[in-house]
Structures are given as structure tokens and as C-alpha cells.
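User: C-alpha cells for this one?
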Amino acid sequence: MSRSINDMASELLNINSANNPINYKWDSDIFREITYFEDGHNRLKNAICKIGYKASIGLAASLFELIYCRLDGSAEITKEMGQKIKYKINATWMAAMDPLLSEILDYNLDERNDGNVFGPIWIVLVAIKQLSNRFVRRSYFIHSPVVGIALLAEHIFPNKNLFHEWFSQVLEKSAKMYPCTYTYAEIDRNAEYDCSGESPMLREFYFGSDDTWSIETVRQRVREYIKSDGAHNPYLRLRK
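Assistant:
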């Protein structure tokens, strides 16, 4: 979080709406396909299930940030709405370092979900709510919400080849450096997972060039964020 939302992601992948009009196809069929993906996309599911717990939360945070960057600038997103989304993005990044730092990222399912702006916003915020419910409860089943977020990001991304290149690289190095240590076939649905032994994940792993970092770097990053605007973020457990 040393650099703010809309700089690292936008500069790296050039996706903001100012340079890329929001003109992707969007209708009820696409909405349903992305929302109810359980019967397909096995290759994507298997790839995401290979990466570790905190790495999965970090992947969700990076995709969440990309989706927001893609929509940022739309006249339909009010200042208040944009700020709430940024708070949730930052809380998700904090959870990638330590899930205990984030509250459940609640969202009202009755919120507006029509059109090519509110539709994607509804999908990603519902998926992030599901993700946070799982990491706050320490559920093993962390990967499924990430699949839906990835499908959404791919659909609205203006340059599909660039997205696939970035996404494939992130999945590959995540599975290699921060692999998942369990398979779902051996897990009881009510069992709790302790991810405290996993490496905290930073944004630079996804949007920069740093693949490893010290614990002190992580602690410093947490302190910096809490000191800056973390005190205003209602989705953090540490607000001092």
C-alpha cells in the first residue's frame, strides 16, 4: 500500500476508463454466466486452487483493484461509493497480509445491479463479501469467490491479451512460490484453517517486481497504512 489505488494497476495495465471507454458487452446473460459459474471454467478453478490461502486473498485484492480502476471515472460512481470501494480494496489487501486485520466486507444484495457499471460492481462486491466471510471464519474454502472475480475482470478488461499475460504470470508464480498446502477432497466443510504460517502478500507481488519481502517490511506497510487513512476505514480491525 505504499502506492495508492489507481496508480500501480493503471500504470502497469493502462485500464482506466479515461483511456478505455466502458463499452464492453453487458446483458443479463453475461451477468448470470459470471455470477453462476459453478458448472464450468474447470481449468481456471484448478489453477486458482493451486495457490495458497493468503496468495488467493492477494489475487482477489489485485483483481478487485483492476476492476475498480476499469470503472473509475464513470459518472455513475459517486464520490461516496468510490470511497467505500477503495476502503474495501485496502481492507482486502490488509487481509492478504493478515486476515485478522479485516472485518467482514458486508454488502447489501438489494443494491442496484443493472447496467455495465452497477452490474460489475454488484458482482465484485458480493464476491468480496463471500471471500471475507470465509477468511474471517478461517474457512478452507477460500478459492471459489476468486474465480468469479477473475471471470469478471477478464470480461471487462479492455485488452484481453494483456490481461491474460499478466494473469497467467501471477498464477504461475503464485503456485510455484506460495502453493496451496491442501486439497478439498480431504477437508471437512466445518474445519478451520490456520494461515498464520503462510507468507503475507503485498501488492508489489501482483503489480510490481518484488516476489519476496521481510516480515519487517510487512509490519512497516501495516503501520504506514494505519497511520495514513486506516483510521477512517470502517472495514479494518486496527483503526488507531
